[in-house]
Write a structure and sequence with these properties.
Elements lengths: L5 E5 L5 E6 L2 E9 L5 E8 L3 E5 L2 E2 L18 E5 L4 E5 L8 E5 L4 E3 L3 E7 L1 H5 L5 E6 L2 E6 L5 E6 L18 E3 L5 E3 L2 E2 L6 H11 L6 H12 L26 H16 L2 H21 L6 E2 L6 E2 L10 E2 L2 E2 L8 H16 L6 H15 E2 L4 E2 L14 H4 L7 H15 E2 L2 E3 L16 H7 L5 E2 L3 H12 L3 H10 L1 H6 L11 E2 L7 E2 L3 E2 H14 L2
Antiparallel strand pairs: 1-2, 2-3, 3-4, 4-14, 5-13, 6-12, 7-8, 8-9, 9-14, 10-13, 11-12, 15-16, 17-29, 18-19, 20-21, 22-23, 24-25, 25-26, 27-28
Length: 528
């Protein structure tokens, strides 16, 4: 019942708990070591005490749980030096060795044993296996006091810790692959680096914060994996497996990321010498046809694609929940903007092609009866994807159409925490994101609110109604609940999704890159 002793919690300089333990104030601080597979836990006390610590091991990936088994190797070896004590354990063959570096003078009681049925109630709620057995490695004993802090550093790397390390700064989703190149994790704790999420998050997470060198390296990293005009949607866990190219929009979002980078950096050599030649290749592949049925329809110049290639890609039992094969509205807004950007960067011969897409776009997507855009060429559902027709650098539609579109979206989709993915009353609408994996996937894009959509909504709103002081103030006001949310769920971050109806309970990944990135971009760039 340690929580009953808790006096204070704070996030800075890294997560810190302060406890009242029998008249002594005990401080526990956890920090990650940048660029390493290491975590450091430090303890400080206002009084002299004996501190006992029992490390519990799960030793697994984030998609599985551990259960008691005979395969675990309980051997713990010990090194003692003047500056530190180091324990080594390798619970399972084929997995990395674990090293525990700790303050000198530690005592070690070798009392390893299984602790059964640790329960994770959130996993229970999500319809997953929720009971885990944990291996108690040993019990460590320390004398701690005002002048004698204690540290334990757990690592699967090779660094040796001989002193209490200082907490490292917060990096927020920016990590490095095994080859040393930076990339962006889509969300914690279970996502990896995805092409679509990386390109959407790049302006807010890196460019708006002046981290331009890292932004350029991320772009280079994905360009290096270009295949038939597409960047990867996902990289596999196994080193020998090939990347997955099952996305129609990740590559088109790269044009937007490059545009934001060049605007901030004025890096013309990167644009003209590195990106531009490959971008021309990208356009050629899209015209001629590439993976998964992605190609330009010669009849109208619009881009068409196969199933489940947009961000609304959930499946249940192999069947699409939100079928979007054909001509999705946001894909063609992105295609149009890619052509316009390339024309502005020197490929002026693309102007006529962009003009043709503009004319076809209004004819195919505008729904006069509803006063907004269709989600697909043959689907009248009111969804937020239509916002990208206005939120990108080269907006489409007339002034009257823009205002009508935004008003419809505001009325049907806007919530305090983002935009619904489907309007209430539409066939298939789901009001709450909950249940087992199939139930959650069934509602993922069928009404569930996504905070990152505040970005396109506010940019579309300003496009339709102008950047007047009143409009800017209105848009800033919209973001207040989301800003407050940073202190409500995963502290310091923003959730992946929310329920579509009050009280708008957060769900999904508790820390999502594009949720954080779009709020950062809005507050520091679009509304600054």
């Amino acid at each position: 019942r340690g929580y009953s002793k808790l006096l204070e919690f704070r996030l800075e300089p890294s997560p810190t708990w302060v406890y009242d333990v029998g008249g002594a104030v005990l401080e526990k601080q956890v920090s990650l070591v940048e660029g390493e597979q290491s975590v450091v836990v430090t303890y400080r006390s206002t009084e002299n005490r004996r501190l006992l610590i029992a490390p519990f091991l799960a030793y697994r990936d984030y998609h599985s749980l551990t259960h008691a088994n005979m395969s675990l190797d309980s051997l713990v070896t010990e090194e003692r030096g003047r500056d530190a004590v180091v324990l080594h354990a390798k619970p399972y063959e084929g997995l990395p060795e674990l090293s525990l570096h700790m303050s000198p003078g530690a005592s070690i009681e070798r009392n390893g044993r299984w602790y059964f049925n640790t329960e994770y109630l959130v996993e229970l709620e999500r319809g997953l296996d929720f009971r885990e057995d944990l291996w108690k490695l040993c019990t460590l004993g320390f004398d701690i006091g005002p002048e004698k802090p204690v540290f334990i550093a757990a690592t699967t790397g090779r660094r040796r810790f001989a002193a209490l390390p200082a907490p490292s700064g917060k990096q927020e989703f920016v990590v490095r692959r095994a080859d040393g190149k930076p990339t962006i994790i889509a969300g914690y704790p279970w996502f990896t680096d995805w092409g679509r999420d990386t390109m959407i998050s790049l302006p807010g997470l890196l460019i708006s914060r002046g981290r331009l060198d890292e932004a350029r390296e991320v772009l280079r990293g994905f360009l290096g994996w270009l295949d038939q005009g597409l960047i990867p949607n996902a990289f596999p866990d196994k080193p020998d497996a090939k990347p997955e190219y099952n996305t129609v929009d990740a590559t088109l979002w790269m044009f937007q990321a490059v545009h934001a980078y060049v605007q901030a950096s004025n890096d013309k050599p990167f644009l003209h010498d590195e990106f531009f030649p490959k971008a021309m290749e990208i356009l050629r592949w899209h015209r001629e046809g590439t993976h998964h049925g992605i190609r330009v329809d010669p009849a109208d110049g619009l881009l068409t694609c196969g199933p489940q290639l947009t961000w609304m890609d959930a499946r249940v039992n192999g069947e699409p929940v939100t079928p979007r094969a054909g001509k999705p509205v946001e894909i063609n807004a992105l295609w149009y903007n890619a052509l316009r950007l390339m024309a502005s960067w020197g490929a002026t011969e693309l102007t006529a092609e962009a003009d043709r897409v503009r004319d076809s776009f209004e004819r195919v997507f505008w729904n006069e009866q509803r006063g907004c855009l269709r989600d697909l060429a043959d689907d009248d559902a009111v969804r937020p994807n239509q916002l990208f027709a206005l939120s990108l650098p080269f907006p489409l539609l007339s002034v009257e159409q823009r205002r009508s579109l935004v008003e419809v979206v505001e009325q049907k989709l806007l919530t305090p925490y983002g935009l619904r993915t489907l309007a209430p009353g539409e066939p298939g609408y789901v009001s709450h994101y909950h249940g087992n994996p199939s139930e959650r996937d069934g509602g993922y894009h069928q009404g569930t609110v996504w905070p990152w959509l505040f970005g396109p909504f506010i940019r579309a709103y300003l496009c339709a109604f102008g950047r007047t002081p009143a409009m800017l103030a209105f848009c800033r006001k919209l973001l207040e609940p989301l800003e407050k949310h940073r202190d409500e769920a995963c502290l310091g971050s923003i959730s992946e999704v929310f329920d579509a109806q009050p009280p708008f309970r957060p769900g999904g990944a508790p820390a999502q890159a594009w949720s954080v990135a779009e709020l950062q971009q809005l507050l520091t760039v679009d509304l600054a």
